[in-house]
Amino acid sequence: MKKYKWLVPTLYIIFLMLPIYWLINMSFKTTTEIINTYSLWPQKFTTENYIKIFTDSTWYMGYVNSITYTVFNTIISVAAALPAAYAFSRYKFLGDKHLFFWLLTNRMAPPAVFALPFFQFYSSVNLFDTHIAVALSHCLFNIPLAVWILEGFMSAVPKELDETAYVDGYSFGRFFFKIFVPTIAAGIGITMFFCFMFSWVELLLAKTLTATAAKPIAATMTRTASTSGYELGLLAAAGTLTIIPGAIVIYFVKNYIAKGFAMGRV
Amino acid sequence: MNKTINQKAWFFVIPVFVLVAFNAAIPLMTVVNYSFQETFGNNVFAWEGTRWFKQILLSERFHASLGRQFAFTFIILLIQIPLGIAIALTMPKKGWGVPVCLILMSMPLLIPWNVVGAMWNIFALPDIGFLGHTLNSMGFDYNFTQQPGDAWFTTILMDVWHWTSLVVLLSYAGLNSIQPAYYQAAEIDGASRWATFRYIELPKMKKVLTLAILLRFMDSFMIYTEPFVLTGGGPGNTTAFLSIDLVKMALGQFDLGPAAAMSLIYFFIVLLVCWVFYSLMMKNEARS
Questions:
Q1: CATH node for A56-261
Q2: A229 pLDDT above the threshold of 70
Q3: Those residues with Cβ within 8 angstroms of residue A229's Cβ, 6 or more apart along the chain or in another chain
Q4: What's the whole-model pTM score?
């Protein structure tokens, strides 16, 4: 039995790769070929779909928009979550447990519940169709997550580190940025990875809060699919390109992923 | 860790508190506001009391989509949790296989959700998709846009594809935290593979598995984009889960009152289940 152990993960990975392969396969075909013939690889190999995406600004601006609000959101979430996570991991204060659970409930709130009020709220403060609106709205689920993960990593650092630094005459600010932040650098990296991930994959809120100027790539795809007939080749090429940023990010954090998923609480 | 009492710690929490309150409390109050009123357009509202809540709680449509939602969540948990554990147990523990497995398995997690839906749509199309074509040429009569059973099968397979890796990664992290000494002790005692799993690995994974179940419950209960792109809730209403039904009501028909009442009931159900899980989790943590 032990000899065939590798079969399980191998089969699983094949299962995971099949739809991705199919998408890539389609992206190198023309739409006519997709509709008329069934083939495991492109008969007439074409890069026309990709060329269209890289030359048409309504397409490639979608990627720029998505990456812009994702980066904004990652920075805001981590910057706000750092001091809060420190407070939760080091101090007891009035209502701390309730506050922590309240934060988590926001991770549980279905975005569908918030779509309409968000639209009205951000329109009324004139932030509709801006990158910052999407970045702020994604804080709803990313800040609780960031606090949760960071708190786990910070609690693993012994309190003696803080106390020694204060005895050595460090002010709080200097201790926090010079000693504490470098100590939990791995945790911050993982937190940024998760914020990036959840902001990158979310569409419902991003689509509701944008019209043209900040439209995410994923929303561009849904619109094009319905207006100009069914351009499967183009859709497949756009889809394939959305996988790339994620793949790059995974490559950089591969050693921390498993640990990060356990939120530093294993 | 023994924490010091320090009320000034609130200052550290203020940025998070403000940002989340700004994002959660204000929109939530809007929803609460709508749920008790009838709107006539032009910002004219009339007090309706609990009428919408009664209407939703008694409506067959809500019962049906709630039933579908629970069935879906239950099925995917039943598949993903054991499958995830099995894969984590058989994954290589060291060597070149580890990064390869981790990178490839994380891929589905980082694909935008509507791309997941679109990808599976293309993959499952009966005539030109790999899955649909293969099943049909094997003699199955498969068409997920027409037959409710096939639509369910495809939606569940898609979710298994999309999220099992999360359970794998969590379980793998849990397994990695077990000291080799435990395994050596089990070997000396002549424990069977099953006994090792039951009495060493499973208890050590308890914490991460609770987390996995909690995350999978929350996310599958909120699922919207992927089935919306794949099946659009169809054929008919057979794959219209709670979120899909809600968005249809709120943005499609603009029935703000009932939609708001449904939102609150929906949120309350998620909250209730998560609170139970969270309390259990904290209890476990306090004990260990």
A1: 1.10.3720.10
A2: no
A3: none
A4: 0.86
CB-based burial of residue B277 (10 Å sphere; 0-12 exposed, 13-18 middle, 19+ buried)? middle
Give A125's pLDDT tier (boundaries 50, 70, 90).
confident
- Fold assignment, B61-287: MetI-like fold (1.10.3720)
Q: What is the mean pLDDT of residues A73-94?
A: 92
Q: Return all residues near B208 (Cβ < 8 A) that are at least 6 apart.
A: A262, A265, A266, B170, B171, B173, B174
pLDDT for A259 equals 60
Residues of A in Cβ contact (< 8 Å) with B173: 258-259, 261-262, 266
The alpha carbon of residue A156 is apart from the nearest alpha carbon of chain B, in Å, by 9
Domain boundaries, given as residue ranges, for chain A: 1-46, 56-261
Q: Is pLDDT above 60 for B272?
A: yes
| pLDDT, mean of residues B91-103 | 83
A51 touches chain B (CB under 8 A): no
- The answer to whether residues A141 and A110 touch, using CB atoms and an 8 Å cutoff, is no
Nearest to A112 among B5, B127, B224 (CB): B224
Determine, for residues A258 and B176 on separate chains, whether the beta-carbon distance falls below 8 Å: yes
Domain boundaries, chain B: 61-287
**Reported ipTM:** 0.86
- Residue B76: both structure tokens together: 């995917």
SS (H, E, C) A149-209: HHHHHHHCCCCHHHHHHHHCCCCHHHHHHHHHHHHCHHHHHHHHHHHHHHHHHCCHHHHHC
